[in-house]
Each structure stands twice: as structure tokens, then as C-alpha cells.
TrEMBL record:
GO terms for molecular function: methyltransferase activity. The lineage of its organism: Eukaryota, Viridiplantae, Streptophyta, Embryophyta, Tracheophyta. Keywords: Methyltransferase, S-adenosyl-L-methionine, Transferase. SUPFAM superfamilies: S-adenosyl-L-methionine-dependent methyltransferases. This is Uncharacterized protein. Belongs to the CFA/CMAS family. Pfam families: CMAS.
Length: 345
């Protein structure tokens, strides 16, 4: 029997229509119908590990394998691939990046001498901010992207920070360690994971007795959902650069339901317009450097076709437009960013 996922769209429709017809005609025995229902039920369950199997595919094929030099153009000096905090109209992207990093240190109660783990460290914005501000902190970053690991390690050498910066290439869902940390940060990496109960259970084991966990994630004010088309006309959910079903959009309160191993200490909301404004700054950086963007994407693959170069940079622009519109919708009070501080139970 044909299984979904390996047949093309037309065959899927034929198969479904035919199946329903046979069910309605009473041609399929109950035992077989039950078995078909059970195998359908297992499909969502198989996606409930911490990071579904798409996590590695997306890292291998997706935007985190783009050259870091592209991100240097788009993100600017701070290399922060997550919401910045624009204190006022005149704030630049760099100032807004620093303002948000400062807020992490304050809200996560970072002090010099602590050990810090940054889950999903990206291009090292948080790692380097802490390493420079607190020279006696030891900061470990985890990323599932080779490109990000190489970039952060190069920068650590360049800025003489190898003594207190360490980067681990790992998928958090399978990563294990006996180490325990004073502070654990996860800045917009939970959106790329699932099964928060399992994830928080794991992270809690990495926290010292009096350790704190600080999380920043995008959210909708009330709804939690997986980013995937909700009907066949939903082209928007299909066109983001992440593969469909990869990204989770938690609600602002979602993680409060997962307090088996950690307890909430504080919870803040940041208006979505901050995220939107950051995307507008990314767009300006891409549009103001079109030749450099093409050259840097070319440097990743010498025989890349012109058409592919245009397609990639336009898709990234589309992603910025998408997140900008999403986050400014309803004055930034529909989708937004939340900060959560947890202690170990
Ligand atoms: C949106 S980026 C945020 C990067 C960084 N925290 C920042 O603020 O710039 C998400 C990060 O999470 C990482 N990530 C996503 N899923 C992961 C997984 N299963 N294991 C390890 N890292 C993961 C990505 O490689 C990326 O570095």
C-alpha cells in the first residue's frame, strides 16, 4: 500500500479519496481500518522528540549553512540572530542588540565567575557579550551548525577569548553531559524544538542546585502552533525558509505548563515591534549590499547559478518581510517575544 511522503500529491489525493470511498462502502474490515487509524496516530507522535528529525536536515540544508560572511552583512556587527530591543526611535541595530544583551545579563542575574551554557548560540552574540563583560565567566555555546561553530571559534581566537569560550557542535536532543552550569540561556532556539517537557527535564539536569535558566522565545499572545500550512491556500507558511513543521510558535504562557523540573521565577513580554524593526534593519542591510550579498553566497559554492543566487537572496528578503509583518501585526501585541526565568526544582 502507498504510504504518504513517498507518493506525489496527485497520488496522495487519489489514495485518500479511494480509501474514504471504500470505508463508506463498507469494503474495508474494521481490523484494517483500526490498523490504518493507529498508523496515522503515530505520525504526529514520531515528531515529538525534542528536536524532530527535520532539525538536522534543516541545519544541513537550510539557512544555518549559509556562509557566516552573509550573516555579517545582514546582522551587522553584533551578529545577533534574535530579537533586539529598540529603546527609542533613534536606536540603531547595534545599540538595540546591545540593549537586549544587557537585559539578558540583568534578568538572568549573570555575575563574573559563573559558568554559562548558551543553547543554540548562533554566531555568538550572547557568548561574546558575556565573555567580554565578565572576563572570569566560562561560556559554553551549543550549536548544530558547523558554519556557526567555526565562525564563533575563529572570532574567539581573534579577540583572545579562547580561555573562557568553548563551542560544542551537537544536536541538543541527543547531547548529554555531566557538567552543571550556574546559568543556562536559550535565546530563540526553543522555537526549533518540540516536546518541552523532555527538553526542560534534560536542561534541569545541567543546572547547578541554585542555577537559573533564562529563555527568550517568539510567541503568539494566546495560541501555540506548529508552523505548517493550515490549508492548501496557505502559501505563507510554506514559503518560510524553514521546512514545513520545523518551527514551533509557542504561546506566551506555554512553557508555564512545563514545570515538573523547573519553577518559574519571572516572566516578561517584549512588544513584537522590536522584532519587526530589527527585520527592517536586516532588509536595509541586504538591500544596501546587493553585490556583497551575491559574492558571499557565491563564495560558498563556486558553481552556483546566477538564478539560484537571486532566488536565495530574495527568499531571505521574503523571510525578513514575513517576520516584520508578523511581529508588527496588531501593533506588536498579537505576536511578540517573551523572556522567562526558571530555577531548578
Ligand atoms: C534563531 S537562532 C538564534 C541564535 C542565537 N541564540 C542568537 O541569539 O543570535 C537559533 C539557534 O539555535 C540552534 N539550534 C536549533 N536547533 C538546535 C538543536 N536541535 N541543537 C542545537 N542547536 C540548535 C541553531 O543552530 C541556531 O544557532
Amino acid at each position: 500500500m502507498a504510504t504518504f511522503g513517498v507518493v506525489d500529491e496527485d497520488l496522495k489525493v487519489d489514495y485518500k479519496a479511494e480509501l474514504l470511498k471504500k470505508v463508506e462502502q463498507g469494503l474495508i474490515p474494521d481490523e484494517e481500518i483500526r490498523s490504518l487509524i493507529r498508523s496515522q496516530l503515530e505520525r504526529p507522535l514520531s515528531r515529538m522528540s525534542i528536536a524532530n528529525t527535520q532539525a538536522n536536515d534543516a541545519a544541513a540544508l537550510g539557512i544555518y549553512q549559509w556562509p557566516a560572511s552573509f550573516y555579517e552583512i545582514m546582522l551587522g556587527k553584533i551578529m545577533k540572530l534574535s530579537c533586539c530591543y529598540f529603546k527609542d526611535e533613534s536606536s540603531t541595530l547595534e545599540e538595540a542588540g546591545i540593549a537586549m544583551l544587557e537585559l539578558y545579563c540583568e534578568r538572568a542575574q549573570i555575575q563574573d565567575g559563573q559558568s554559562v551554557l548558551d543553547i543554540g548560540c548562533g554566531y555568538g552574540s550572547t557568548v561574546f557579550y558575556i565573555a567580554q563583560k565578565y572576563p572570569n565567566c566560562h561560556i559554553t555555546g551549543i550549536t548544530n551548525s558547523v558554519e556557526q561553530k567555526n565562525y564563533v571559534e575563529e572570532q574567539a581566537k581573534k579577540h583572545d577569548l579562547t580561555r573562557n569560550v568553548e563551542i560544542i557542535l551537537a544536536d541538543v536532543s541527543t547531547f548529554e553531559t555531566k557538567e552543571q552550569y550556574d546559568r543556562i540561556l536559550a535565546i530563540e532556539s526553543f522555537e526549533e524544538m518540540k516536546n518541552y517537557n523532555l527538553l526542560l527535564n534534560k536542561i534541569a539536569k545541567w543546572m547547578k542546585r541554585d542555577g537559573l535558566l533564562f529563555i527568550q522565545h517568539m510567541c503568539h499572545k494566546d495560541l501555540a502552533y506548529i508552523q505548517e500550512p493550515f490549508d492548501e491556500d496557505d502559501w505563507l507558511s510554506e514559503w518560510t525558509l524553514y521546512s514545513t513543521g520545523y518551527m514551533t510558535m509557542p504561546s506566551a504562557q506555554l512553557l508555564l505548563y512545563f514545570q515538573d523540573d523547573v519553577s518559574i521565577v519571572n516572566h516578561w513580554i517584549i512588544n513584537g515591534k522590536n522584532f519587526s524593526r530589527m527585520c527592517e534593519e536586516y532588509l536595509k542591510n541586504i538591500d544596501g549590499n546587493t553585490v556583497a550579498v551575491r559574492n558571499t553566497l557565491k563564495s560558498n559554492s563556486s558553481n552556483i547559478e546566477e538564478e539560484t543566487l537571486t532566488r536565495l537572496s530574495k527568499r531571505m528578503r521574503f523571510m525578513c518581510l514575513f517576520f516584520s509583518e508578523l511581529m508588527q501585526y496588531n501593533n506588536g501585541e498579537e505576536w511578540m517575544v517573551t523572556h522567562l526565568l526558571f530555577e531548578k526544582k
